[in-house]
Amino acid sequence: MGNQKLYKGSxxxxxxxxxxxxxxxxxxxxxxxxxxxxxxxLQITEGALxxxxxxxxxxxxxxxxxxxxxxxxxxxxxxxxxxxxxxxxRLSEMQEFLNTMQKLVNPKLSLE
Length: 112
What we know:
This protein is of the alpha+beta class. The protein has one domain (4-105): Orthogonal Bundle (Arc Repressor Mutant, subunit A). The chain has helices at residues 4-8, 11-22, 27-37, 46-58, 81-105, and strands at residues 24-26, 62-69, 72-79. Strand 2 (62-69) and strand 3 (72-79) form a beta hairpin. The protein is globular, with a radius of gyration of 16 Å. The model has no long low-confidence stretch (mean pLDDT 89).
């Protein structure tokens, strides 16, 4: 769990990528998918997730759809057109960052 600080700066990009792949998701579903994909290595708390979702919504990259499920209302998040473009940009930036880090941390294994 020592990697939590490293993941924190990537949370918005992680959310965007999941929504790109899954069309729409609700908050708890996002946390569970991340936990599943990382085999428990990364566990996103509600205290981190919802501020990130609200920020992305305020930026216009996410839209919210409220649906009634049983006796409760559930907020589903989906990418806007701007969100699709932003996801592409952020994933590209993330790949550049990872390539740079690889050069610094282990130059012998660098992809370039």
